Structure formats: C-alpha cells, structure tokens
Batch of 2 targets.
Target 1
Amino acid sequence: MIVPKTLIENRWQADLSGVYKDYRVIRSQINKDQEAYTLTLQWQGNCPEQVANWKLSAVLDALGYTDEIEQMIGEYSPIVQKAWNDAPTIRRASPMIIEFADRLNLTDEEVDALFTEAAKIQI
C-alpha cells in the first residue's frame, strides 16, 4: 500500500490518518520519488477488517439502512455501482464505508458494530 508522507515534529513519517488509522506498520520503504512510502500494514481495528458483502447487506437491511445506502450508491458512476454490488467483501476502512457512515451520522463504534454483527452471520 502506498501512503503519503507528512512532516511530524520535523521528521517525515508515513501519514496513517483517515482510512489508515486502524492499521499498524509492519514494514516501510520510502519510494524513489521521496514523496510517499510503500507500507506493509496489519489491521488493528476493533472489528473484522472485512466482511462478506452479502453479510453486511443483511445487517444494513435489518437495521433499515438499505434504501439510504442504495440512494448513496446511485450517486456514483455505473462502474463504482457495479463494483460495490459485485464485490465479494467490503473493507471496514473503505473510503465508501467512511463516507456512508458520515452521511448516516454513524460513529466509528457503530460502524465497528455493523461489521462485528455481519461477521457473526453463519449459513
């Protein structure tokens, strides 16, 4: 994964804010352009890193979020819509999940709970 670097206390460091906040760096290497790092990251979040798309959809449906999510997905290009609908798994740190959570006024803890509950579904 390639992430930008940022100046922290007069030292350049990999910027692990935003979607990377729940990851820990296992290995890092500055790129030849000196503008970004290539990192190997390990998930450190409070819920599963990813769940099956159908499981997350089932939890969202049970909680009454399906119509709102479908409306938000409809705002994206047809390619992104297809990718969302056909993806076998959805990552907790996905920019779309973060955007949906913000638009639905869900806290990080509530989104973690959605992923935790989705992971519990067994067939």
Target 2
Amino acid sequence: MAFLAEIRYSILSLNNDLCPPHIFLEPFQAFVIYKNMESTTATKNPVLIYTEQTPNPESLKFVTNKMLYAGTADFRTRELADEYSPLAAALFDLPYVKSVYICNNFVTLTKEINYAWEDLMIRTKDFIKNYVAEEKPVILDGFAEAMTAAEDKRMSEINYSEDDGEMVKRIRELIDTYVKPAVEMDGGNIEFKSYHDGVVTLIMQGACSGCPSSTVTLKSGIEAMLKRMIPQVKEVVQEMA
C-alpha cells in the first residue's frame, strides 16, 4: 500500500482546479481491489485425491487433501446415509457401491462383488473429487450425537458386574489406543460391542468388514494383545457391521 500512498501524494500535489484527485484515485483503487480479489480466488487450494489398496479386495480407500469428517462414520444402509450424509447418499446412487465409510480425510468404498475396481476407480475418484471441490455437505449436524446416544443406550441395556465393567473399560481403551490407528491406515475401523465370560465381540467396519485377512488380524493381532494385557480374555470374535 506504500505504492498507492505515493501515487496519492503525487496527485494531491497537482492543481486541483485542473484535475480533481478522485478522478485518478478511484479507478486505481478499484483496480487494486479487483486484483486482490482475483489473487484470493487464485490461491484457493485445489482438491487432490488418490487411492490406496486395502487388505479387502472389495474395498478401496479414496484419500483427499481435505478434512471430510473429524470422526468415523459407517454407512451400511442407504436409509442411514439419507438421514445423515449427503455424500454417502450420493455414493449409494452409484450401482456398484455396497457401503460407505468416512473418516478424517478419506472415504472407503466397498463395492458389490460382481464389479471390478479397474473399471470403476477413475470415475469414482472424479465423482468424489468434484463433490468435495463443490464444498457440498459430507456429514450433517447431529450425526455424532445420534450415534453416541444409540451406543450409550445399547451399553446401558447390558448389565455388567463391577469387575466386568472395569474390564470393558480397559478393553475399550486398548482398542482405541492400539487397534484403531493401525486399521485406520487400511481404510477400516473396529468397534467394541460386548464382553461376556471371557469372550470379546468386536464390530468390523469399512475395509475391515468382510476382509479375508480380518480373521488373522483378529486372532494373531487383537486377541493375542488382549490376552497378554488382560488375562481374563479368552477369545476375540467378530460381528460384521
């Protein structure tokens, strides 16, 4: 703006009777404002997107450079997507989409088995990229609260003893700390469902659901860890979301 001030000073030094300053200043100021607006628009970051393979051949992870949802959102049905996620609902319009999982800056799509990702990947990338670039809503307000309320209601219906209640708390802490960050890298998620007589039941989401290697992960990884950390745990089983 020092450049503009210098011009203003030079103009004011002119004979005002010959040429009023505003005749020079107003067009120049309008030009500066326009260029600033143009610069702001030009520096808007473009949406970038790439894919990552997952251990599940039916699931593909689409990673963007934009935060989509600060949390986890698993849509196994069109009805839930219609209620809470315009992005998931739009993806369900694609005939090959079986489920949608949204977390942080990525979307994991699980396709119907009679389609091949080789035929779908590019068009799906373009679809998600354009959707995000247009800044359309991803998850609607109230989703997290509704899911928390549903989980709290479900847990309240399970009568754990005081000892089992403490054990459940430890199990959930271990899953949140050690399991979730690892499976998130593969485009999936694992949630605690229940504990009964030494058996821990987990819910597989995203790429983890239906993954051929999920049994290995469950037994060799999660079960082994929980048994080592909590001797009362005898077995870990999965329930498909």
